[in-house]
Amino acid sequence: MASTTPDSSRLRRAGILVLVFFAGLLILILVLLAVFSPPITVNVTEGQAQISFSANRSRVLLHNNCVTVNWEVEGIQTVLINTLPTVGTGQQEMCVTPEQRPTLLVTLVDGSEREYQLDIQFFERQLLTWLLAVPAGLLLLGALLLAVWPRLSPVVPRLKVVWKTVEITGITVIVIVVGLELGLRFYFTNFGTERERIKYLYSAEEIKKIPQIVEPMPYVNYVASPTYEGHNRLGYRGPEITLPKPEGVFRIVTLGGSTTYSSATDSEHSYPNQLQKI
Questions:
Q1: How far apart are CA 102 and CA 104, in angstroms?
Q2: In sequence order, what are the beta bridge partners of 79?
Q3: What is the C-alpha to C-alpha distance for residues 10 and 6, in angstroms, rounded to an integer?
Q4: Is the dihedral of CA 94, 99, 102, 104 positive or negative?
Q5: DSSP-assigned beta bridge partners for residue 106
Q6: What is the tens place of the pLDDT at every residue in 159-180?
C-alpha cells in the first residue's frame, strides 16, 4: 500500500469534490437542455391562404422520438402531411428522423404549391451536447482516478496485463460481430424473403418506396391502392374493367374487409371471383 500524508489526502478529497461539482453542473445543464424544449411554429399568409404549422417540441433526444404536430390551413385546395392527404385542421403524433421531419405541402387556390418543414433538431447531434457531455465525462473520470489512486498505484503493472487481455477479447468480439453482420446481410439479400428484408435490411426510405396494398385517403382513411400488383386502376383486385360499362352488363361490387379481399389466397380463389364465375 502506498503511503500518504494527511495533507495529500485532504488535497485529493478537495480535488475530487471540485471535479464532481463541475461535472454535476455540466450534467445538470445537459438535463435541462434535454427536458425543456420550446415548441416550433410556422405561421404564414399566402394571398388568401392562412397557414399554421407547429410541433410541441423543437428538439428531440434520439432518432424516432415523436412529437405532436398541429396544422390549421384555410383558403387552399389540398393539404398533405408528409406526402399523405389530410384535412385542413388536425393533430398527429409523428416520429422524427434526420431524413424525415414533419412537412406540410399545400396547393393554393391558384394551383401553386408551398412546402413547409419543421426543422426539429436532435439532441445527440447538437455541438453543444458534446461540448458539455465530453468534459463532464472527463471530469468524472478524473474524480474516479483520484479516489482509487492510492489503491491503484501498486497494481499498475498487473493492470497492464489485464488491459492486454481485454484488448484482445474486444478485438475478437468486434471481428465476430462484424462477420455475423456481413453474413446475415448476404443471406437476407440473396436468400431472404421480402418480409425479412423489410425487417432487417431496408431503410425507412426504401420501405416507403415499396408498393403498398392500401393508400391513405381523406375522410375514409384508406382505400385499395391502384398501383399495387394485382389491382386494377380503380383499386379493385382483379383485371381491368371496361369503362363506360357496356349495355346489357350487370356489375356487382362486394364490400368488406380481409375476407372479402381474400388476403389469405390469390385473386383467382377469392369468393368475389367465384361469384363472378357463377
A1: 7
A2: 106
A3: 6
A4: negative
A5: 79, 114
A6: 676 777 788 888 888 988 898 8
- Secondary structure string (H, E, C) spanning 169-235: HHHHHHHHHHHHHHHHHHHHHHCCCHHHHHHHCCCHHHHHHCCCCEEEECCCEEEECCCCCCECCCC
The whole-angstrom distance between residue 137's C-alpha and the CA centroid of its chain comes to 28
Q: Strand pairing of 84-85 and 113-117? A: unpaired
The pLDDT, as a whole number, for residue 158 is 65
What is the rounded average pLDDT for all residues in the chain? 83
Name the residue among 55, 23, 50, 18 with its Cα closest to residue 39. Answer: 55
**What are the residues whose beta carbons fall under 8 Å from the beta carbon of 260, sequence distance 6 or more?**
254, 270, 271, 272
The per-type count for the chain, helices as H runs and strands as E runs, is 7, 12
Helix, strand, coil percentages, rounded to 5, for the chain: 45, 25, 35
What cell numbers appear for 141 in the block? 473520470
Decide if pLDDT at 54 tops 90: yes
The Cα–Cα gap between 136 and 72 comes to 43
Per DSSP (E only), the strands in the chain are 40-46, 49-55, 59-60, 66-74, 76-81, 84-85, 89-95, 103-108, 113-117, 121-122, 214-217, 221-224
DSSP-based three-state secondary structure for 146: helix
C-alpha cell at 129: 451536447
- In the chain, % of residues over pLDDT 70: 90
Nearest to 136 by CA among 29, 213, 215: 29
Q: Which residue has the cell 407547429?
A: 54
pLDDT confidence bin for 1, thresholds 50/70/90: very low
What is the radius of gyration, based on Cα positions, of the chain?
Answer: 31
SS3 40: strand
**71 three-state secondary structure:** strand
